[in-house]
Specification:
heterodimer, A: 168 residues, 6-stranded mixed beta sheet, 4-stranded antiparallel beta sheet, 1 helix, rod-shaped, B: 310 residues, 10 helices, 2 strands, globular
Chain lengths: 168, 310
């Protein structure tokens, strides 16, 4: 299901420059006249969800399924109004995930309404390697670091060989 | 890794520093080949003491501690930054994360102890701390060197045992070490993010972001240490490297002193220290070099062949 601009679900950051793990925040806006009692995010196994935020207003469960991870948040129902996402309001829920590398990863966000109905939206996270001037920064640092050390070392070796040859 | 310094920023610090060193190398190799290839030219004039045993032991102990701190720090900062290297040689990164915290802290405590010994030794035994304090001459020397680096010209003689770059390096080490020490202590005692899920790191981080400051100081320090290694490996500085290994330095390469002052700025009473470097020829028993005598009977400022250090 494509994500439209009027989608009540947003994920931030959706463009990530990372080698491994990142925090993501899902914002769910209740556009229906019914409160949302639970929100879950399902990610493919390659996008390993490793933790969820500790918002005291929500109880959270992290499960590993056969082909996916699911992080779910359940609103705590209190006597006066509870802590559900009320109609017209929004709530942001966070989770950490290990990213396996560059790529586009699809997530499914599901909202469970207080009347038992549910709705799902698909969203994507685009992961890129951190880069500078179009180059992977890690590669740049490795390359330049090696050059810095190799230049004087190679010069020393060349000069030593020349001196040895000159002494003969 | 959202509570840490951006990997693009940290990498930019290293890339900028490394690029400067590469430019420096090409500048001196292609534009001024004589100074680039001088140094390590022999010891025709005999040898004198360069650094005493305590100084050498301190230097190499600090080197080991710094390498341990840098490697463990990089792992803690961003495991994936070094994982390709370390995993390939069988060093665990992710699976030993908390262990790396302990290694980092132990390394920091050892380094602190070494610094205390260093301060005590140089302040109370050798009394050479003044040699490391930048002065007006250093500013002038820096400007001359910067001018010559850009526009060329005759090599700049070193003005004292430690030139402006050595003093600047030492001063920056102090600033970085203090910054790293304070921010590291705050993280260890008050904001140990490694004990919490990553999603909570931002919440436990104090408002003044000690983790980001720690990363910033750490990467500046790594840039400096790599620069120190680069300059050490240059041929022109080979005698200094040799002196830091063997303790002795060729008289021709011995460090100069400032006109009008005592040899190398060392007070006369310090000359009678019982610690004698290998092959130390005379009264300089402090592990610091003595200027040799020139033909006119005046003290000659024993510079390298082209009088240049980097």
């Amino acid at each position: 299901m494509p994500v439209h601009s009027e989608s009540p679900v947003a994920i931030a950051p959706s463009n990530v420059y990372s080698y491994e793990s990142e925090n993501f925040f899902v914002t769910v806006n209740d556009t229906k006249p019914i409160p949302i009692s639970s929100v879950s995010v399902t990610a493919p196994l390659v996008l390993q969800i490793v933790g969820t935020d500790q918002n005291p207003n929500w109880s959270h469960v992290l499960t590993r399924n056969q082909s996916s991870y699911t992080a779910a948040w359940y609103g705590l129902i209190r006597i006066q109004g509870g802590r559900l996402i009320q109609p017209g309001n929004s709530s942001t829920l966070g989770f950490s995930a290990n990213v396996p590398g560059p790529g586009t990863y699809q997530l499914v966000v599901t909202a469970l309404y207080f009347d038992g109905s549910n709705e799902s939206w698909q969203t994507v996270i685009i992961v890129s390697n951190p880069s500078l001037l179009g180059q992977d920064v890690r590669t740049l640092v490795y390359f330049l670091g090696a050059i810095v050390i190799l230049l004087p070392v190679s010069q020393s070796i060349v000069l030593a060989l020349r001196r040895r040859d000159g002494a003969r | 890794m959202v509570h840490t310094l951006s990997i693009v920023v940290s990498s930019s610090i290293l890339i900028a520093a490394f690029s400067l060193y590469v430019v420096h190398w090409f500048r001196r190799s292609l534009w001024q080949t004589r100074s680039a290839t001088s140094g390590a030219s022999g010891i025709e004039g005999g040898e004198t003491a360069g650094f005493d045993r305590v100084q050498r032991l301190f230097h190499w102990s600090v080197t080991i501690a710094t390498v341990v701190l840098a490697v463990s720090g990089l792992i803690l900062y961003y495991p994936a930054y070094v994982a390709p290297f370390l995993n390939s040689v069988g060093v665990p990164v992710h699976s030993y994360f908390v262990g790396w915290v302990d290694i980092h802290v132990v390394g920091a405590v050892i380094l602190l102890g070494l610094i205390v010994v260093h301060i005590a030794w140089d302040s109370f035994k050798l009394r050479t701390t003044k040699l490391m304090v930048p002065n007006r001459e250093d500013v002038r020397e820096a400007m001359v060197r910067a001018w010559r680096f850009v526009w060329g010209g005759s090599p700049t003689p070193r003005s004292s045992k430690y030139d402006v770059f050595m003093k600047s390096y030492h001063a920056l080490l102090i600033v970085c070490s203090l910054g790293l020490g304070v921010t590291g202590l705050v993280q260890y005692v008050w904001a140990p993010w490694w004990k919490f899920p990553e999603i909570l790191h931002l919440q436990i981080e104090p408002w003044w972001k000690p983790t980001i400051l720690h990363d910033l100081f750490g990467f500046i320090l790594i840039g400096l240490v790599v620069g120190h290694t680069y300059f050490t490996l240059l041929m022109v500085n080979r005698p200094l490297l040799k002196a830091m290994v063997t303790g002795v330095i060729a008289r021709d390469e011995a460090m100069p002193t400032l006109p009008g002052g005592p040899a190398n700025g060392i007070p006369e009473e310090a000359m009678s220290s019982p610690i004698v470097g290998l092959a130390s020829p005379g009264p300089n028993a402090n592990g610091v070099s003595l200027p040799s005598r020139g033909p006119e009977g005046t003290e000659r400022f024993g510079l390298a062949e082209d009088g240049q250090t980097e």
